[in-house]
Amino acid sequence: MAESATLKVGSLERMRMYENVVVSAAWLADRLGDEETSVIDVRDGWEFDGIGHVPGAASVPFAEFRSETGDEGMLPGAETWESLLSAAGVGPEDHLVAYDDTHGVFAARFLVTAELYGHPPDRLHLLDGDYSAWNQAHETTSDAPARATTDYVVREPAHSPLVEYETVAEALDDDGTVIVDTREPREYDEGHLPDAVNVDWRDLVDDETRGLKPEAELRSILDDAGITPVRRVLLYCNTARRISHTYVVLRSLGYEDVGFYEGSLTEWTERGGPVETA
């Protein structure tokens, strides 16, 4: 097979991996009770227990799957991740559906972490709309989930979106790459990577439905900022939480070349990277 044809096949395979990244409440409702579907609630434990949760969901609070070793927001470590998913009853090939009550930004971080630790990308799903949206039309419970524990083991991902400081620095002068700052405009104005475009992750969310805006509107917002599928996209924020949501959105829209700068502005400034202000 010619190299160009091989690349095309690989590209199509990656696109299929992300076909069902964002799923509706109806999609999830049809799969509740399925042994191969693990629903993960990343809110605080008191919310899970006191307010209620999606039936069968396991509680994996956001604070438990981020590093606490001085690099706040970074990956929690393989052993920690294995322990969390084993306790939640997650199997190696399960469909993981994550939700929070903050428009999906914390749930997206969970899903990106799962991808980086080797869970199959085609089995990672963000609930479109958060717990508040689910609660309006679907059953909730305060009962503890009945799933048995597992022995979850991390794997090397087939493809990692992570990019390092050096990659981002080299991309500053690359017209084929767009660097995207997903923070609030106020933060962007105070200091951002040179020539980065600002698309606040909340710009992609519908406040009324608490889920994503319609696809046509999403594409219009992104196109207006020069974030098109034909360009390489490098994402950053402060500590890799907000870029997780934008990463999931771009994947759901079929963007293929998306880089995830986990170190984000925290590492960038620590290493003396150039910064512009408004």
From TrEMBL:
<feature type="domain" description="Rhodanese">
    <location>
        <begin position="33"/>
        <end position="143"/>
    </location>
</feature>
<dbReference type="GO" id="GO:0016740">
    <property type="term" value="F:transferase activity"/>
</dbReference>
<keyword id="KW-0670">Pyruvate</keyword>
<dbReference type="InterPro" id="IPR036873">
    <property type="entry name" value="Rhodanese-like_dom_sf"/>
</dbReference>
<feature type="domain" description="Rhodanese">
    <location>
        <begin position="173"/>
        <end position="277"/>
    </location>
</feature>
<protein>
    <submittedName>
        <fullName>Thiosulfate/3-mercaptopyruvate sulfurtransferase</fullName>
    </submittedName>
</protein>
<keyword id="KW-0677">Repeat</keyword>
<dbReference type="Pfam" id="PF00581">
    <property type="entry name" value="Rhodanese"/>
</dbReference>
<keyword id="KW-0808">Transferase</keyword>
<dbReference type="InterPro" id="IPR051126">
    <property type="entry name" value="Thiosulfate_sulfurtransferase"/>
</dbReference>
<dbReference type="InterPro" id="IPR001763">
    <property type="entry name" value="Rhodanese-like_dom"/>
</dbReference>
